[in-house]
Amino acid sequence: MTACDDKLLLLQAHVDGELDAANAVALEAHLRSCTACADELARIEAVRGILASAEPGYRAPEGLRSRIDALIDAEAQAAPGPSARRPVERTPEFHPSAGVMAINRNWGGGLATGLALSAALLFALPQLIRSNTEDQLIDSHIRSLSLSSHLTDIATSNRHVVKPWFNGKIDFAPPVPELAAKGFPLVGGRLDYVDGHEAAAIVYRRRLHTINVFVLPAGKLSLPVSMSSKHEGYSVVRWTKNGLAFWAISDIDLADLELFQRTFVSEPSL
């Protein structure tokens, strides 16, 4: 017996202490009636305990820190301009038992930049996945289904009507590709709100199911690949393109929504 697909992320978040009060209460109620999810929670906690107490299988060489320092110093000295002569400040901490190194310093070149960006991505991705924005958009998706007047502000299958309808209402131009031939007919569009800002919502169908595509400026965020997840029974696919962030949300199967995302991206919108 396997755990419920839509509860796996919640179980992980529960073990990490990241659920809010409402979701924690709902999950605990579910665990009282679902043996499979209760067993999965016990397994996650057991694995976490083993990882916390296990000795690493590989220890970093003692000379690793000095070699990395030498590479960074060489790049800093080779860099042109005053920044190359700036004193290097650092507070290194080396943990051979964990096989990792933590260095706090003024980074001076391509190698250092690459390491810094990798570390930033490592810590940023979990926050992107567990963003509160996702909760808001799922709530908006649910409201659009429960309130018939809220599903669309402009109800038409003509993309040449939907796309210009957004002109003057938002300060960006969302793409509105025609996907009916691929099994995802256009229903219309509406204005929505995310984090207090206006967003475009483009509505498609997959058989009897509704797909909401929320579009808003991506800012500095850029995802090289799409990110997919299940959240409280809803499929969510997120991606960025041409400075815009896209969130597709539906109750269809996640593989079907991923097909929609690939189709949406590949089709022209003009």
Order of helices and strands: HHHHEEHHEHEEEEEEH
How far the N terminus sits from the C terminus, by CA atoms, comes to 48 Å
Q: Tally of extended strands?
A: 9
How would you name the oligomeric state of the polypeptide chains in this document?
single chain
How would you write the strand order of the largest sheet?
A: 3-4-5-6-9-8-7
Helix count from the secondary structure assignment? 8
Beta-strand content estimate: 15-25%
Which range best describes the helical content: under 10%, 10-25%, 25-40%, 40-55%, 55-70% or over 70%? 40-55%
Enumerate the spans where pLDDT stays under 50 for 5 or more consecutive residues: 88-109, 119-130
Mean pLDDT: 78
Gyration radius over CA: 24 Å
Content-based structural category: alpha+beta
Q: What best-fitting shape do the alpha-carbon axes yield?
A: globular
- Main sheet: strands, sense, barrel: 7 strands, antiparallel
In short:
This protein has 270 residues and is an alpha+beta fold.
Keywords, please?
alpha+beta, 270 residues, seven-stranded antiparallel β-sheet, two-stranded antiparallel ribbon
Furnish the topology, listing elements before pairings.
Elements: H1 8-15, H2 21-33, H3 35-53, H4 64-78, E1 93-95, E2 100-102, H5 110-129, H6 132-146, E3 154-155, H7 159-165, E4 186-194, E5 197-206, E6 209-217, E7 227-231, E8 234-241, E9 244-250, H8 254-266
Antiparallel strand pairs: 1-2, 3-4, 4-5, 5-6, 6-9, 7-8, 8-9
Helix pairs in contact: 1-3, 2-3
Characterization of this structure:
The protein is α+β, with helices and mostly antiparallel strands and 270 residues long. It has helices spanning 8-15, 21-33, 35-53, 64-78, 110-129, 132-146, 159-165, 254-266; strands at 93-95, 100-102, 154-155, 186-194, 197-206, 209-217, 227-231, 234-241, 244-250. The strands form 2 sheets. A 7-stranded antiparallel beta sheet has the order 3-4-5-6-9-8-7, sandwiched between helices. A two-stranded antiparallel ribbon has the order 1-2. Strand 8 and strand 9 form a beta hairpin. Helix 1 (8-15) crosses helix 3 and helix 2 (21-33) packs across helix 3. Residues 88-109 and 119-130 have low confidence and may be disordered.
